[in-house]
Design brief:
By secondary structure, the protein is an alpha/beta fold. The protein has 15 helices and 18 strands. The protein has two domains: 253 residues, Rossmann fold (3-Layer(aba) Sandwich), CATH 3.40.50; 175 residues, 3-Layer(aba) Sandwich (Molybdenum Cofactor Biosythetic Enzyme, Chain A). The chain is 36% helix and 20% strand. Helix 4 runs parallel beside helix 5 and helix 8 crosses helix 9.
C-alpha cells in the first residue's frame, strides 16, 4: 500500500464471515495478492495477534449462515466490537456469493443492523458478485455459474433447491429487504456505476439503514467498485458481501499502483495420504465424489440419521466410520466419508424425515460428528492433509479439530484453496481445505491431494 499504510499497525480489512468456507475465501484473495492475512476460528486474543504483527487482513469465521436472528443478537455485537477495536480501514461482513440466507436463518438483514450499530455508516454497500467465481449482478439480479451455463439465482439448479435457504428471489435488494424492517434498499446499476455514481457521505434517514447493492459483471466494474469502496471508507466503513469485496479492492489497489502484482502462487506437492469428510448434498459435490471413487479414493457412507436416534447409535456409527477410514489408509488408499451423493440420494429424504423436529440441530450434530471422525482418523493415522466439504459442515467440523487459525498455502479454483492450520495441539501444521458444496472442479479432491497450484 501507500507509505502511510505500510507502517500502519491497524489492518486494512477485518472480516467476520457467516460460514467457514467463505471466511477462508477472503483470506485466500488477500494472501495471494501479497497481503498477509489470517483467519481465526474465534476472535483472536492479544497474545495471538502479537505473534503476527504484519497482518493486513484479520478474519473470524462463524456458523452465522445456519443461525437464527436471536443467535446473531446474542453472539455478533461483541465480536463486531472486537474487530472494530482493531481500527481496520474497512469492516466486512462476509456472506456467501450465492446469497444463502432468509429472515429466519442466516439473516443478512439482521447482520446489517448489528454492523450498522457498530460502525455508524452513512450507507451499507452490498457487493455479492464475484466474476472470478462466475457470480454476477446485473440491474440488481444475481446470477451464478453452473456447469457451462450461467443461471439467475432463483432458477439455479442448486440454489433454488437449497435444503435450508432455497433461493426464490434473485433481486439482491429485495431479498435483503425481506430480512429487516430497518433497511431501505436500492441498487447502483451498471449504468449508475459508469455514470459516476457514488456512495452517500451522510445518512439520509437516521431512523433507517441505507443499503446499496452493487452491480458487477467484469474486471472494469470490479475496479470501479474497488475505488468506490476504498475512497468511501471514511463515511462507509462497513461493507457486506462475498469475497468479491476483496477482489474489487485488490484490483483497485493494483490498478492504482498501491500494491504490486505478485507472481501466481504454486502448489505444495502431493500428499502420501489424505482424508475427506463431506456433509454436502450438492450435485457438484456428488460429481466430485463420483470422480474420487474412480481415482483412488475409497467411499465410506456415514448414516447421518444416527444423530436423530440415540447417543449410543451415534457413537456406534462414528466408531464404525473411524475404523473403516483407518482400514482404508492401511491399504494405501484415501478415505472419503460422505453423508449423501447429491440431492437425489435417498439418504437426504431419510435424514429430513428423521430430523423433522429440528433439522438445524441435526445438521450441526452431523457436522460435529464428521469433525470428530476426521480428528480421530488424522490422530490415529498420522495423515497430515484433509478436506471438509460443505459450507455449514466446515464450520461445525473444523471446530472439532482444536485449530485456532488458518493461513493460505496454495490455490485451486477461487474460493477453495489449501490452507495451513495453526493449533496448540497435534493439528498444528495440518494442511486443510474447506470447500463449499457447490464449489470446485469435478477432480477437486484429487487436485488437493496433489497439492493445489496450477493444473
Amino acid at each position: 500500500m501507500q507509505p502511510k499504510d505500510r507502517v500502519r499497525d491497524a489492518p486494512l480489512i477485518a472480516w467476520y464471515a457467516d460460514d467457514f468456507t467463505g471466511a477462508a475465501a477472503v483470506m485466500e484473495v488477500l494472501t495471494f495478492a501479497g497481503l498477509p492475512a489470517m483467519l481465526f476460528l474465534e476472535p483472536p486474543t492479544q497474545d495471538q495477534l502479537a505473534k503476527y504483527p504484519d497482518l493486513k487482513g484479520i478474519g473470524v469465521a462463524s456458523t452465522a449462515r445456519a443461525q437464527s436472528p436471536l443467535w446473531m443478537d446474542a453472539e455478533m455485537p461483541g465480536i463486531f466490537a472486537q474487530l472494530a477495536a482493531l481500527k481496520p480501514a474497512l469492516m466486512h461482513y462476509k456472506v456467501c456469493s450465492t446469497l444463502d440466507s432468509s429472515p429466519i436463518v442466516g439473516s443478512i438483514g439482521r447482520a446489517i443492523e448489528i454492523g450498522a450499530r457498530t460502525c455508524s455508516p452513512a450507507a451499507v454497500p452490498v457487493m455479492i458478485a464475484a466474476p472470478q467465481m462466475r457470480r454476477y449482478q446485473s440491474f440488481g439480479h444475481l446470477f451464478a455459474g453452473f456447469g457451462d451455463a450461467v443461471c439467475r439465482l432463483d432458477r439455479h439448479p442448486v440454489m433454488s433447491r437449497h435444503p435450508v435457504t432455497p433461493m426464490t428471489e434473485s433481486d439482491v435488494a429485495k431479498h435483503i429487504a425481506l430480512q429487516s424492517k430497518k433497511v431501505i434498499t436500492r441498487c447502483l446499476t451498471l449504468e449508475d456505476l459508469f455514470a459516476g455514481a457514488q456512495l452517500p457521505k451522510t445518512a439520509a434517514n437516521p431512523d433507517r439503514i441505507d443499503v446499496v447493492t452493487l452491480d458487477c459483471m467484469d474486471d472494469r466494474t470490479e475496479s470501479v467498485i474497488g475505488r468506490m469502496l476504498w475512497d468511501g471508507r471514511a463515511a462507509n466503513p462497513f461493507v457486506v458481501g462475498s469475497q468479491g469485496v476483496e477482489y474489487a479492492l485488490v484490483r483497485h489497489w493494483q490498478h492504482t499502483g498501491q500494491i504490486a502484482k505478485v507472481a501466481a502462487p504454486q502448489g505444495i506437492g502431493p500428499a502420501d495420504r489424505m482424508v475427506v469428510v463431506s456433509g454436502s448434498v450438492s450435485p457438484t459435490t456428488a460429481d466430485q465424489i463420483a470422480w474420487a471413487k474412480n481415482n483412488g479414493f475409497a467411499g465410506i457412507a456415514f448414516d447421518a440419521t444416527c444423530v436423530c436416534r440415540s447417543q449410543e447409535a451415534l457413537d456406534q456409527e462414528v466408531a464404525r466410520t473411524v475404523a473403516a477410514c483407518l482400514e482404508v489408509i492401511s491399504q494405501g488408499r484415501d478415505p472419503l466419508v460422505y453423508t449423501a451423493e447429491g440431492p437425489d440420494d435417498p439418504t437426504v429424504e431419510a435424514f429430513k424425515a428423521a430430523a423433522s423436529e429440528d433439522i438445524a440441530a441435526a445438521n450441526q450434530q452431523t457436522g460435529e460428528a464428521l469433525g470428530y471422525i476426521l480428528h480421530q482418523t488424522l490422530t490415529e493415522s498420522g495423515v497430515r492433509r484433509a478436506v471438509v466439504s460443505g459450507g455449514d459442515t466446515s464450520g461445525h467440523a473444523t471446530r472439532q479439530l482444536g485449530i485456532y487459525a488458518l493461513t493460505a498455502l496454495a490455490p485451486t479454483i477461487p474460493g477453495a484453496a489449501l490452507f495451513q492450520a495453526h493449533a496448540e495441539g497435534p493439528m498444528d501444521g495440518l494442511q486443510l481445505a474447506l470447500k463449499g458444496g457447490q464449489m470446485g472442479s469435478h477432480d477437486y479432491f484429487g487436485w488437493i491431494r496433489n497439492g493445489g497450484g496450477p493444473q
